[in-house]
Amino acid sequence: MKLELRGITKRFGSLTANDSINLVVESGEIHSLLGENGAGKSTLMNVLYGLYTADEGEILLDGVAHKFSGPGDAMAAGIGMVHQHFMLIPVFTVAENVVLGNEPTGALGTLNLDVARARVREISDRFGFDIDPDALVEDLPVGAQQRVEIIKALARDAKVLVLDEPTAVLTPQETDELMEIMRGLAKSGTSIVFITHKLREVQAVADTITVIRLGKVVGEAKPTESAADLASMMVGRAVDLEVHKNAPVLGDKGLTVTNLTVVGDRHDKVVDDVSFTVHGGEVLAIAGVQGNGQTELAEALVGLRGVSSGTIHLGELDITASSVREVIDAGVGYVPEDRKKDGLVAEFSIAENLMLNKSFGAPFAKGALIDFANRDRIADELIEEYDIRTPGRDTPAGKLSGGNQQKVVVARELSRDLNLFIASQPTRGVDVGSIEFIHERIIQTRDAGKPVVIISTELDEVAGLADRIAVMYRGRIVGIVDATTSRETLGQMMAGVSA
Amino acid sequence: MSTETENRFQTALKEIFSTSATRTVLSVFLGFVVGAIFMVFSNEDVLKAAQYFTARPMDTIAASWSAIADGYSALFRGAIYNYERADDPVAAFRPITETLRFAAPLIAAGLGIALGFRVGLFNIGGNGQLMFGVLWATWISTRVELPFGIHLVVAILMAILGAALLGALVGFLKARTGAHEVIVTIMLNYIAANLLTYFFREESLLRETGGGGTPKSDAPAITAQLPKLLGEDYTLHLGFALAIIAVVVYWWLMERSTIGYRFRMVGHNPHAARTAGINVERTYMYAMAASAAFVGIAAANQALGATSGLSPSVDAGIGFDGITVALLGGSTAPGVLMAGLLFGAFKAGSAPMQVMGLSPEVLGIVQGSIVLFIAAPPLVRAIFRLPKPQKTTVLKDLVKRSSKGEEK
Amino acid sequence: MKTEVTPGMFSQAEIAVSKKTPIVMAGFTAIVLVFFGILGTGDVVVWQFTKPDDTFALPDFTVASNTIGLIIGVVLAAITAYAFVLVSQKKHPALWLSLVFGLLAVIALLSWLAAGNKVQFAFILSNAIVLAIPIALGAMAGIMSERVGVVNIAIEGQLLTGAFLAAVVGSLTDNLWVGLLAAMVGAALLSMVLATFSIKFLVDQIIVGVVLNVLVLGVTNFLYSQWLANDGKNANFPGTFPIIEIPVLSEIPILGPALFENRITTYLAFLIIPALWFFLFKTKLGLRARAVGEHPLAADTVGINVARTRFWWVTIGGMVAGLGGAALTIGSVGAFGRDMSGGQGFIALAVVILGRWHPFSAGAAALLFGFAIILRIWANQVSPGIPTDFITMVPYVVTLIAVVGFVGRVRAPAADGQPYIKG
């Protein structure tokens, strides 16, 4: 099916997220929509999927104009979507999820789950997915959940399939498999819109590329174009993809983790007998596919999660059983992976957010009172120093863009006297300008002789920042390798193959 | 006038009308309108006149007007100034002092519930905490002999401590087991009420000396009664001063202190608070205790402001009224003070309305309607065609620039 | 803390089984053994299982009060020991074990209370059921709205509305069926306010619920004292639905009279509870409703109208609560009284959680409260010396223990209480 978007404009209040966007996707084509975080890709696709109503413009399928007042209309017209955050009900089975909204029924509206199961099996077999229709979705690994999403779209006879950042949760191998599936689908006539900000994937799979920046189409490109060219189109200026840094000057042992085991909420060892050391002046990156225990490792290091066995030492200081506050007082800076949930209080002003973990003593507290003069002075200084774009220190943090929010968190954590800096997904959902700034700051911290731990699922980021890379798989560290290790080796390690 | 300045003027006007203060005033007004409607439709004269409405419509309208006027003028005489007794200044000014007396426990309880709201806790158990505080205070005031001065102080502290302990228990259970505070506080309300009744029923515990079968306590000892503020002509007692002190303490705690800052942090985002090194569970416990401690000041008012024995209905529903006070007051110190005074006036004005043969329960409707309108800003905006809350365009432009492309 | 970790990926750590259940059991066992057994009186208790005029009369059972206490105490001790053994073997004690334990403990309690008197079992059971009906229906309303993600604190107001309208409309029209209809429609309208405010205006659901309760209490109090109190003959004298005996079934010993000699409101509740289970778990509409309560955005992306689903489930839930309110007046005593629901809506709220958002479990939990209410009345009659305040407290304490000890972290519908804001 041929998809055509003409002059799509979508405004949120005074913000124009999509500005008269034109897009043509030919039948059986893999069309990549490339743009950085916040460029308006997801908004455009939500318009296409009927979740948002466009203010202007029209959607044509095989030349016929359609108006979607909800996702139901879009699905009926043959559009399927695999969302970045899966739209699955965790407590439902695969079959229930697949037929939801389109249920086969018997008398009295009773569910006929046998039909649903058969449908799941049929599609699953056709593409070799190996999915049990009666499994609870919450019990499936992330890769399998994504396949359920694809089955869900195909079960509704999708002729146009939109995949929104589908590789974020996959290993390089799983990514390759997904690309195979995409090619297969395209061959059978399905048109595919592939949304991503990863140049490498675009080059590998796309037939055509449309680049979006600040809500506008800035041009079309062929997958044969160089990564640097694509990147500069995406960002609007020449981008230096390299992180510049000198060779590390190793100091004393900063962080020593010995045989650390952390038991998760479901009694599984989410961190399983992990040991590593980080010296002052070096960056250790912890790589791995999302959900292999990195989050829990970071939480254990900062005291947010209890440790079952093993030890954590900061220099000579044992912080294994320390509370979060004790860890903070010991000089550990921490940028959590989900800044909106764990890093900021959206309703608080920037000034209030900059003292979030420092309210117990000087300079922010004077006895039992907040020292407002100091708070405001420090806020102004940090806003200046960290280039936080805001109308003022009293603006609620929730009103800032992702990049500026992240700068608030980084500013708060780096403006203390640190003995260790831990950053989890430091640049997730952040614009390229802020990424460069944050990377620079991380390297500065390392060059100041501090031990730094970076947890990231982005191999490019890992390779750029790290001096050494530890790869985690199913709670264990598969190996700790040099930063120059090839992507292929790292990819295999992320799938559990020891180096 | 150029269009530019005109626009600016309009923007300013819009901003004024979209503020919460305006909305609050309009909500109160609407609440009185709803009350008036009920008064009109339950008035016999109006209903009689309405039977010949088509013949003489003015009769119905006049009757309606007089029903409303009678009702609200009785409220005014009961709550603010009794102009019918203008000859006797003591009697004429007594209503406003009654309002203050009734307002005191409402303000204190309102502050307690408001504190909970600010920390993200819904303390629906004000009534139980109040009764628990009353229980302790009554023990001190009727069963313990202490010197003048000290007796009162100890009794007040016990009221606060008793309530705070029950609050802390809720916080503890929530922190330890994750039990939802709404369910726990509802259950504790019943438990505390029955416990108080039991204590008032048992001779060996708190029952009135020589009393009969009905559960009732002795009057608090003279040394433990809250002293009158304006001499013996008025019943207004020290409890109101306690409430005012509570307002100041609440403001200081929530707006100025680091503890309040952490309370608010936990209220907005417990995850971020935990990551920032705050012990969220313990904060819930402290916050519930602090919330209940304010309710304890209401308990002191009820237990020690009395000059005769207490019955198990000593709570007078203040723990629940505190919820509406907190909501109306927007959980801020000055807001709760004003809301407490308003609802105190309702209580004071009830008696004269009763005398007029008008059920004072209409004030319950007014009270409920006001809070309903407060809780639903879009409704008030729709009724008065007010603009949506607006920020200045300067701010908006800047935000737009800084959050360009921010996707939902 | 929620993480994106998927199970089956990691090696399993050893699981420690909580000792809560056996510890609580040990506490109750001690009470039964010491107070009801060792310190209990030797006065005889007569257990009457049937009324003398029943078709199949069972013989009475007579035994000394403390003997029952001792025997049951020993059995309870055995069950407790078994639970400890299970826990030490890292197994969870089954639910039926707790149920048997509870049942035996209750029998011991009744035998203790009725020392020197009779336990009219049929009387207690049938009254417990009748008294449980408003709570159960209120809880069904709560389940219906919470399953789609709207917290319904306004059950109390809905019960009160239903009770008021059923009595007044039934009285004015002299037709109880019209009264019943008015109760359901009135409570549904109240639900619509809750739904509109929380779904359309995105007002905090708990706050709207509380405010609606205040409002309904104010309105009914006002109308009661201004109108019903003066014009009771005309406006508040509805009478009650007749008791219908279902042939054959009502003659089953013990259970027959309790279950099949009831008013229409009770029978409707018997139908609604399984019907709700069927709709929630076996039909398309139920699947969609649960999807909306778990993950509204996901439901939206498959074309389910979240706002509409929430609106109608909450509204129809209101009708069910209205029926529960009617059960308080025309399904029981007839006339309306001030604040007649007396907090039963809040109890229903607790029942929803105790019943883990499941119609059958909630129905059972409601029965517990019905039993507690009749227990208080009955205890007052058979042994006036007992401090009834404590008996009154029992269900609340039991709920507290249950919520704190066993269902504290029970999983509510994931989107319960969260507004759904569409882009």
Terminal residue distance of chain B? 41 Å
- The top level CATH class name of the largest domain in chain C: Mainly Alpha
Shape of chain C: globular
Q: Output the number of helix runs of chain C.
A: 16
Measure the end-to-end span of chain C.
27 Å
Indicate how many domains the architecture of chain C comprises. 2
Please state the second-level CATH architecture of the largest domain in chain C: Orthogonal Bundle
| Mean pLDDT across all amino acids of chain C | 86
Q: Could you list the spans of chain C in which at least 5 consecutive residues all have pLDDT below 50?
A: 1-7
Question: What is this structure, in a nutshell?
Answer:
The complex is a heterotrimer of chains A (499), B (408) and C (423). Chain A is an alpha/beta fold and 499 residues long.
Structural summary, described in words:
The complex is a heterotrimer of chains A (499), B (408) and C (423). Chain A is α/β, with parallel strands linked by helices and 499 residues long. Chain A has helices at 41-48, 71-76, 94-99, 113-126, 142-155, 172-187, 199-205, 227-235, 294-301, 324-329, 339-343, 350-353, 372-385, 402-414, 432-447, 459-465, 487-494, and strands at residues 3-12, 15-25, 30-34, 56-61, 64-66, 79-82, 160-164, 191-196, 208-213, 216-221, 253-263, 269-279, 283-287, 309-314, 317-318, 332-335, 365-366, 369-370, 420-424, 452-455, 468-473, 476-482. In chain A, α4 (113-126) packs across α5 (142-155) and α14 runs parallel beside α15. The mean pLDDT of chain A is 89. Chain B is mostly helical and 408 residues long. Chain B folds into two domains: 14-79 and 344-408, no CATH class; 99-331, no CATH class. In chain B, α6 (126-143) packs parallel to α8 (181-201) and α6 (126-143) crosses α12. A three-stranded mixed beta sheet of chain C has the order 2-1-3. Chain C has a two-stranded antiparallel sheet with strand order 4-5. Chain C contains 16 helices and five strands. Helix content of chain C is 67%, strand content 4%. With 423 residues, chain C is mainly alpha-helical. Chains in contact: A-B, A-C, B-C. Chains A and C meet through α2, β12 and α9 of A and α11 and α12 of C.
